[in-house]
Amino acid sequence: MSTDHRVHDIGGTEGWGEVPYDPNEPVFHDDWERRVLGLLFQVLPHTAKRPGEFRHALERLASEDYFCADGYYGRWRAGMEVLLHEYGHVDKAELDNRLGVPHGTSAGYRSANVAAVNPKSLPPDRNTPLPERRTVRRELDEPPQFQIGDRVVAAGNDESGHTRLPEYVRGVAGTVVKIHPAEVLPDSTAHNLGDRPQHVLCVAYQAKDLWGEDAEEDVVVNVDLYESYVELKEGVS
Amino acid sequence: MSQEVGHHHGSDPNSPEIRTEALEDLLAEKGLIDRARVDALIERFEHDLGPMIGARLVAKSWLEPEFRKKLLDNADQVLQDEQIQGAEIEHVEIKANEPGIHNVVVCTLCSCYPWALLGLPPSWYKSPEYRSRVVREPRKVLAEMGLSLDSDTEIRVWDSSSETRFLVLPERPSGTEELDLEALAQLVTRDSMIGVAEVKAQ
Amino acid sequence: MTGVEVLDNSEAAPPRDNGELVFEAPWQSRAFGVAADLVDSGSFSWNDFRQQLIEAIQAWEALEGADQPPWDYYTCWVAALEQLLFSKVLLDPTELDLRSSEYVERPHGHDH
């Protein structure tokens, strides 16, 4: 397994402590969190409109901003700083001035630049009728390339663009257990490279295949994978 | 108990309590609101939103085998029939717990969550501790969170990496045979529908 | 009829516990119900109300020091509701003031 994790792709990574579980926590711990949520709905329509774009902005944050003590809403706030700069609404330096912080300290200075994705690394686009309401789902004429029971492997790639393939399943064989409705491909839409809709497979992995012989007994991890992520290892027969 | 003549519970005409009462009465007198409808709305909102939507689906599944089957086969259709709409619902799958099988949901890549069925996600669900560990050592994580499963129970973890959203259908606890839909729904917690807790009869 | 979830997706989200709405006193649930019925009967939309509520919250935030009362969500809710009704000329401010003053004068123990 590659050790070059993107900051957000933490499934199966080690060294984390106990889950901070509180069955009765308030929805917002502080008032500012409520403001961030409100701000987000003002910022997104002027910046990251396409599926996966906002997630990709978060994924490019420096790890100190991603995992900062301000938690989930702190992450969103940092992500918004990045977007507002990238879309030309607020300059990084101007933001520092407005925030009254030392120059060069807003999240925009620390995040990775927009990763250029080679369109050739993406599957071809397909013409599909646009649905009436805004949705990520598309109707595909072509049937899925895989069927339930097939053994598949996702090789993945080292492109730094947006993807929904978690690192922890790369190179591991899993079994297709269900086929979900087709969706636009986030690897493409996050970079404004078209819908490239894909059937979506639900793939089941045995824990021991993912984590080794010491893994817990009787654990199956199911992951939803866009069809273009995987190749057939062994067909069902 | 001493007499308090001429004092209202708030002696401030600007207190929200007084203002609200005055507001409601004036609006009712003008025919802009209907008091019976307001009563019904309060009744409904106190119990309808957030996890109560998911909880009702669970309770109904416990009471009606046909409904349970429909929900497991095609949740999208059921949600449409029940007119449940909202953020994040594009495609929903319900995963039923049964003896020997326990389901739990996560989004390792960010924090995807079925908002319209469960309300706003709790911060522990979005924490790196949960996101990283529940796919790797779910039995241990669940035990730490208070749920100990038999060693021969298969644990199925569902990582929400596409726009499919998952909801766990927990098992009905014994001792609830006499309860109706509303009473059953009150027992079903958000955490049991994520899969980190089971439903208790009390 | 659902539509109030538009409030959840904003800084004007009502307090919840395990996802359920939390009312600390009956007047809060009445204020909620009154707003909901006004939306249902078409007096305004949840979006209108959300905007007004956000302004009320911002007005509270702008208060400083001793002038700023402790945070109370439903106090902002009622302020927003009043403002919206006034701006849509569905209610007159003096009418409401008068009625509120009358209620303050009532003897203890009256029926709601």
Features:
heterotrimer, B: 202 residues, alpha/beta, Nitrile Hydratase, Chain A, 2 domains, two-stranded parallel ribbon, two-stranded parallel sheet, 10 helices, 4 strands, 43% helix, disordered N terminus, C: 112 residues, mainly alpha, Cyclin A, domain 1, two-stranded antiparallel sheet, 4% strand, globular
Short description:
Chain A has 237 residues and is an alpha+beta fold. Chain A contains 8 helices and 5 strands; from the N terminus they run ααααααββαβαββ.
How is this fold's topology laid out?
The complex is a heterotrimer of chains A (237), B (202) and C (112).
Chain A: H1 31-43, H2 53-59, H3 63-66, H4 71-86, H5 92-99, H6 107-110, E1 151-154, E2 173-183, H7 186-189, E3 198-206, H8 207-211, E4 219-226, E5 230-234
Antiparallel strand pairs in A: 1-2, 1-5, 2-3, 3-4
Helix pairs in contact in A: 1-4
Chain B: H1 16-29, H2 35-48, H3 51-63, H4 65-73, H5 75-81, E1 91-96, E2 101-106, H6 115-118, H7 128-133, H8 138-144, E3 154-159, E4 164-169, H9 181-187, H10 190-194
Parallel strand pairs in B: 1-4, 2-3
Helix pairs in contact in B: 3-4, 3-9, 4-5
Chain C: H1 5-8, E1 16-17, E2 20-21, H2 26-40, H3 46-62, H4 73-87, H5 93-104
Antiparallel strand pairs in C: 1-2
Just name the CATH architecture of chain C.
Orthogonal Bundle
The computed structural class of chain A is alpha+beta
N-to-C span of chain A: 30 Å
> What fraction of residues of chain C sit in β-strands?
under 5%
- As a percent range, the share of strand residues of chain A is 15-25%
Backbone structural class of chain C: mainly alpha
Topology, number of strands of chain A: 5
Question: What is the CATH first-level class name of chain C?
Answer: Mainly Alpha
Low-confidence stretches of chain C: none
Helix content of chain A: 25-40%
What's the helical proportion of residues of chain C?
55-70%
Q: Could you say how many structural domains of chain A there are in total? A: 2
Number of domains of chain C: 1
Q: Could you name the CATH topology of chain C? A: Cyclin A, domain 1
